[in-house]
Design brief:
The complex is a heterodimer of chains A (about 150) and B (about 650). Chain A has about 150 residues and is mainly α. Chain A has six helices and no strands. Chain A is elongated, with a radius of gyration of 24 Å. The chains are: A mainly alpha (about 150), B alpha+beta (about 650).
């Protein structure tokens, strides 16, 4: 992840938890009275097929500042910006893969909800199936041994 | 004074926990009756003083004693009474105090439950005492809830508004009852290894069941809370903190099944011990993940990285100690009776194979990003798509096999008879799958498969009960638990695959459409609660042009905490949830409204409830049988 993202990250997360709550509360009330305070908006594309592509992409991309939510779910400003960016790219004719590539080059693999399959993640992707095969192997061994064992009790 | 009473109570509880540990462990020797009595008394005393400390903190919170730092930081005079009470465990210090309180309650329960196996019970008390001591030291050294503030501030900072909710009132205590409840199984397993007691499962099983029921309900409540509180209609996020509670549940489920075989025929003796150790170890790891601050997720509201090292040491101590004990004693364990490859034992073993692989999947998916980041500095996200490709197939394979287990006899089962009996269930599953494909839009093969699988499980549970004419409580328990899985599966599949959603900017008088509904925004009015101001929308729900309901999603702003929350409005019918969340306003008159129709969503949590009822049935049969025939060999669920 590029260091430029870090400050934004911490300000988002610390909002309202630090010692500046009163100030923030006042600020909030001030802001709340202003029109057009929120930039969070439905950014739908007119073409339903393109919009469906955008929605699918949104679900596969992580909101960088909210930990665990996709940009489809998040109310954060960054997520709204990324949603708008995806739609611009789609309108410009980029493929889904190109858009993901672009975002990964900007934010790193962290932005992908589905981790890539490469040298750093082989263990991650293969462990579940290795565990299943290992457990099944042990189970077969146990069953074979138990079926050969002499009957000890009724 | 309150702070000092609480502090003193904690210190006395620590002394008593050490006494319980020492006396309990030495009571494991054959001729140590006095030590055993001391351990019992120590365990009860420990509960009294931890409860006193907990009561003191609760009192301080209720009367808003801001001379206590913990209360000042997490409470506020404006906060409603109920949240002053439940807010006690809405922060790190208070939740750790709740943790040891639950541990002390389970320890006392072991004292009262003891009937036979005096030496093993005493050793189990000793292990519980050690755990309590370790956590009390942790609280006193790093997380003391009774630290004073001087000068005393006039007002408190308040509680995270997300936590000012009914869900918070019930979710943590129930989840902790599950987490910490696994300590009893752990303690009995360790005690069985110490005293070489073969028959430990019978003593531990009620505790396993209570812990499992509590975990099931706790996870379901957490999921339900996220669903209605976070405002976008999701119910499971594969968030590390959720995963931390799912892992003990998976292992606890495996333990319940493996223990059935161990108790009945002595099979898998060492594996069951290992599962009991693993279950509580995962609870400890979960506590570490949540409390150390290594994760920053929706749930890690109150965390402090400096505490991580202590908990990590505690984990290594507990797990390392238990595994060393296991490695030392397990080789001398007697093997169980032989069984054929087609038997109840094999079915239970298969259950454990899939549950172990599922646990490994969640474990690696949760911890891999942390480990990779720590070792190489590379950050990756392991989100829902990963679990959909790994956890889901393992879970589906397990569910497909579930109906066979109850139809196979112990030692030697009849595969052909079992299949013959299940043919109607297979037929029903096919009908359900085809019907779903024919009747639903959009057509979804995955959805049809999920419904077919659910029909297969439900029908198999019904067949199992019907076959038995007068089913035992154990059979009812397993049928209910398996049916609950099916119900939850329907809820998950229906909601995930057939959800409709809409997101619009509306001015009063304008409408949006979602599913079969027209939603008309009639206006947004100001409202105020005890400690918040709200914007409250009036939304008319129309179907075929007639108003069928008014719904009022809110956005709340909490001045004391400087935060806002989304208060969703959910209209539940049997077949679907209509789910509305009010977003920001774009200008004076335009508001963003999110709407979802989540088909069969309530079944997700209803299924968990049915599973828990199954657990209660098993517990009830266990406790009543015990009362009537203490010496009878308990027959496990058939």
């Amino acid at each position: 992840m590029e260091p430029t993202d870090a400050p934004r990250d911490s300000t988002e997360r610390n909002r309202g938890t630090g010692g500046m709550k009163q100030v923030l509360a006042a600020l909030f009330l001030l802001l709340a009275t202003l029109p057009a305070f929120a930039a969070r908006a439905p950014e739908s594309l007119a073409d339903p097929a393109l919009e469906a592509r955008a929605r699918t992409l949104q679900k596969e991309l992580r909101c960088m500042v909210c930990q665990g939510e996709s940009i489809d779910e998040s109310n954060a400003q960054l997520a709204a910006d990324l949603r708008a960016l995806i739609r611009e790219r789609i309108k410009a004719g980029d493929s889904d893969e190109q858009i993901k590539q672009f975002l990964v080059s900007r934010y790193g693999d962290f932005i992908l909800m589905k981790p890539p399959f490469d040298a750093s993640t082989y263990a991650l992707w293969l462990t579940p199936f290795a565990a299943l095969i290992l457990a099944a192997g042990v189970a077969i061994w146990v069953v074979v041994r138990a079926s050969r064992a002499p009957q000890r009790k009724a | 004074m309150t702070g000092e009473i609480g502090q003193l109570a904690l210190c006395l509880a620590l002394a008593l926990s050490l006494l319980t540990a020492g006396a309990g462990l030495s009571g494991a020797r054959p001729a140590a009756g006095t030590a055993r009595s001391v351990a019992s008394a120590g365990a009860l005393g420990m509960l009294v003083f931890i409860a006193l400390a907990f009561g003191t903190l609760t009192y301080a919170s209720v009367v808003s004693d801001f001379s206590i730092q913990n209360v000042q930081q997490n409470s506020n005079t404006l906060k409603p009474l109920i949240y002053k009470i439940t807010g006690v465990w809405g922060n790190h210090e208070g939740s750790m105090l709740l943790w040891v309180l639950v541990l002390a309650i389970y320890t006392a329960a072991i004292v009262f439950a003891r009937r036979t196996h005096e030496r093993m019970t005493s050793a189990a008390l000793g292990v519980q005492g050690l755990l309590a001591a370790a956590f009390l030291v942790f609280i006193l050294l790093t997380s003391n809830p009774f630290v004073r503030l001087d000068p005393m501030p006039f007002e408190g900072a308040g509680l995270n508004p997300l936590l000012q909710d009914f869900g918070l009132a019930v979710h943590p205590p129930i989840l902790y009852s599950g987490y910490v409840g696994l300590s009893a199984s752990f303690a009995f397993a360790a005690a069985a290894l110490i005293t070489k007691e073969r028959d430990w499962v019978r003593a531990a099983r009620p505790f396993m069941l209570v812990a499992w029921i509590a975990l099931t309900l706790g996870i379901a409540l957490g999921s339900w809370w996220a669903y209605y509180e976070l405002g976008w209609g999701g119910f499971w996020f594969w968030d590390p903190v959720e995963n931390a509670s799912l892992m003990p549940w998976l292992v606890g489920t495996a333990l319940l099944h493996s223990a059935l075989a161990t108790e009945r025929t002595g099979a898998f003796r060492s594996w069951t011990l290992l599962l009991a150790i693993a279950g509580f170890s995962l609870s400890l790891i979960g506590t570490f993940l949540v409390r150390s601050g290594v994760l920053s997720s929706v749930h890690s509201f109150a965390s402090d990285p400096t505490r991580g090292l202590y908990i990590l040491g505690l984990i290594f101590g507990a797990i390392g100690g238990a595994l060393a004990l296991f490695a030392w004693r397990a080789p001398s364990l007697e093997e169980g009776a032989a069984f054929s490859p087609v038997s109840r034992e094999t079915a239970l073993l298969l259950n454990n194979v899939f549950l172990a692989a599922a646990t490994a999947t969640v474990f690696v998916g949760t911890l891999y990003p942390l480990a990779l980041d720590a070792m190489t500095g590379t950050k990756i996200s392991v989100g829902p798509p990963y679990f959909a490709l790994t956890f889901a197939p393992i879970a589906v394979a397990l569910l497909v096999l579930v109906p066979f287990g109850p139809q196979l006899a112990w030692k030697r089962g009849d595969a052909r008879a079992a299949i013959r009996l299940l043919i109607p269930a297979l037929g029903l599953a096919a009908v359900a799958g085809v019907a779903l494909l024919a009747l639903t839009t959009p057509r979804s093969l995955a959805g049809a498969g999920a419904f077919a699988l659910a029909a297969w499980l439900l029908a198999a549970s019904a067949i199992d009960l019907w076959k038995r004419k007068v089913p035992s409580a154990g059979a009812i328990a397993s049928a209910l638990a398996h049916a609950g899985l099916a119900i939850t599966l329907i809820g998950i599949a229906g909601t995930t695959l057939w959800r409709s959603e809409a997101l619009e900017v509306l001015a009063p008088g304008e409408s949006m459409y979602v599913g079969e509904y027209q939603l008309r925004l009639d206006g947004v009015a100001g409202a105020s609660g005890p400690n918040y101001q709200a914007a409250r929308a009036n939304i008319a729900v129309l179907r075929n042009g007639t108003v069928i309901a008014m719904m009022h999603p809110e956005k709340r702003f909490f001045p004391a905490e400087g935060q806002e929350t989304v208060e969703t409005a959910i209209r539940t019918t049997i077949f679907s949830d209509l789910y509305l969340a009010l977003g920001d306003h774009r200008d004076q008159t335009h508001w963003i409204v999110r709407a979802y129709v989540n088909p069969v969503a309530p079944l997700i949590w209803l299924g968990a409830l049915v599973m828990a009822i199954g657990g209660f049935a098993a517990l009830w049969s266990r406790l009543t049988r015990r009362a009537t025939a203490p010496n009878a060999i308990a027959a496990p669920a058939e």
